[in-house]
Write the C-alpha cells for this entry.
Amino acid sequence: MKSARTIIGFALVLALLGFGRAAAQGAAASVSILDFKYEPATLSVTAGTTVTWTNNGAAPHTVTAADGSWDSGNLDAGATFSKTFDTAASVAYYCKYHGAATGTGMAGTVEVTAAQAQPTAVPPTAAPAPSGPTPSISASNQPIVNGTITVASVVAAQDGWIAVHKMGPDGKMLLTPLAGLAPVKAGSSSNVVVKLDESFAAGAMLSPMLHIDAGTIGTYEFPGGPDTPVQVDGNVVVVSFTVTAAAAPAPPALPDTAGTAAPTIWVLAAALVLVGLGTLLLRRRRAA
C-alpha cells in the first residue's frame, strides 16, 4: 500500500510539473500596431511565448525580422500576425513601409529569455520634462486656391515638414505619394501655404501631417528614412479637412446710370441759361 501511494504521489508530481511546463509554453503576449510605432516597442517574454501583433492603425504595416528570417506580409487595418519565440534571443523587427532593419523609424524588439530565468525588476524612471512647445497643427475645410492649401497654424518643436497626405480608393490615408510638401520652422507659424502636386475635386479629404527633419537637412526622407511623423502622447500630429468648392467669381459691376442722370440734366440746364444770358447781354449792348 505504501508503494502504491508513493507511485501515485510521484505520478501526481510529474503531472503537476507537466502542467506547469505546458502553461509556460502556452504563454501569450500582444503588441498593438499603431500608425508609425509598435506599442510596446520593446516586449520581454519567456521562451515558448506566442506574440500576436494587431494593426490598430489606419495605414498598412508589416512585422518583419531585421535579419530577414520571417515576415508577416502586408497587414491592413484590423489584421493580426502571430509568432512563437522558442529560443532565448533579442529579436529585432521593423515595418518595411515605415522603418528600416537598422532600427530607424518604425521598429521594435522582442526580448526572449529562457523559461527558467527569473525576470529582472527594472526601477521606474521619471519621464523627462518637455523641452519645448507642444507640437500641434490645425486646418479647416477650404477650397484649393491657385493649386495651394493653407494650414492655419503649426507648432513645431524643431524644424520639420508639413506633409499633405491624400486618401486612397478605399478611403484610407496614403503615406505615398504625397499630395504636397512644405518646410516648417521650429516654433509657431500661421497661414502656412502648401503647394499641391495635383488637383483635387470638392469633397476630397486631405491630411496635413507634421514630420521632423532629422536626416539630410532640407531633404524629405520618409518612409524608409528618419523624417518620421511627430507624436504627442503616442498620437501622430495630423489634421484632416475636406476640399470645398471654389467661390464663383463676382459679376462685373454695371455703370451707375441712375445716380448720374440727374446731375447731367442740371449741368445742361445751367449751360443753356448761361447761353441765354450771354445772348441777352449782347443784344442790349448793340441796342445801346
